[in-house]
Amino acid sequence: MYDRRKFLKLTAVTASLTAISKYAPAMPAIKAAAKNLPIVISTWDFGVAANKEAWKTLEKGGRALDAVEAGVKIPEADMNNHTVGRAGYPDRDGKVTLDACIMDEFGNCGSVAAMENIAHPISVARLVMEKTPHVMLVGDGATQFAVEQGFKKEKLLTPESYTAWQKWLKTAKYSPVLNIENKQHRPGSKYNHDTIGMLAIDAKGNISGACTTSGMAFKLHGRVGDSPIIGAGLYVDNEVGGATSTGVGEEVIRNVGSFLVVELMRQGYSPEDACKEAVNRIIKKKPETAKEIQVGFLAINKKGEYGAYAIQEGFSFAVCDEKQQDLLIPGKSFYKEKK
Ligand code: ASP
């Protein structure tokens, strides 16, 4: 049940922590005393298969960065997944434009946004990080860079996506609502959602994250959400932890959501409480909008503790470590608690 006193208490704690952090020297990094490493977590039900792929790298003692890239490539390649990668639904002009970013334990990051004709944006984002002095490439420039790096240029609009787009054109109504925004455009699909955000800690205790999406179905051409934006859709600080988000990206960008979650964990919040506070900020700023939309955050701290929180019920996240390979956990949410 939603507990107003608890909410107020949490708000008060945040206020005092914010006040302290204004004057105090940087808080010490959370000491790693994790027992459950390596570990990988990711958003939504398609995170289960993605985690399993990431685990292949982690169990061999591989690097978290390699694990998250390999992991999120699974939904990117999945022809039944119309919200991530290759089979993603197009924008209102019928163009499939993909967004992705990646961040490693050194604070290096790379991103591509509104990229067309390349099926694995996460791998292009990684090369932006590793092979260029830049963080972000967009549109034609991102595609051009990918081709120069040896990626195959291909048509991404599948017959199924084309049909869904044609159907949408009949009303051409774009109104992102709750969790079902994409579900209504993909009858028969087992996927209801959205972006995959993945966070992993490897056996050495290093953290990396990846986030990839086709964004909102039938969005305006050129629209970019939170997912490829470092600090919004993904943020990693190897001393503290990592966070990622899914849902209506505009609200996440407005609140620099993933960065906020990591900074709250630095101040001592648990991953779940940090996600909850980030959700509360979105609701507080735009209470009317928040009633109609979904945003979910997922976070892990340096100790391997994880948690999530969303505006609406229905958010889930997948966890994989040595003990459990295919755990899917329902995320807590503001509105479910309130009922
Ligand atoms: N966050 C993504 C975006 O706004 C979409 C989603 O996760 O549903 O592009």
Summarize the structure in words:
With 339 residues, the protein is α+β, with helices and mostly antiparallel strands. It has a domain at 31-88 and 99-109 and 178-217 and 229-338: Glutamine Phosphoribosylpyrophosphate, subunit 1, domain 1. It has eleven helices and 13 strands. The protein has helices at 4-23, 47-58, 64-77, 121-131, 139-148, 159-171, 249-254, 257-266, 271-285, 287-292, 334-338, and strands at residues 39-43, 97-103, 109-116, 136-138, 196-201, 207-213, 234-237, 241-247, 295-301, 306-310, 316-321, 327-330, 332-333. The strands form two sheets. It has an eight-stranded mixed sheet with strand order 4-3-2-6-5-1-11-12. A five-stranded mixed sheet has the order 7-8-9-10-13. The longest helix has 20 residues, at 4-23. Bound molecules: aspartic acid (ASP). The site of aspartic acid has 12 residues, from strand 8.
Instruction: Please write the CATH class name of the domain at 31-88 and 99-109 and 178-217 and 229-338.
Output: Alpha Beta
Percent of residues in helices comes to 25-40%
Instruction: Please tell me the CATH architecture of the domain at 31-88 and 99-109 and 178-217 and 229-338 by its name.
Output: 4-Layer Sandwich
Q: Choose one word for the global shape.
A: globular
Largest sheet descriptor: 8 strands, mixed
Alpha carbon gyration radius: 19 Å
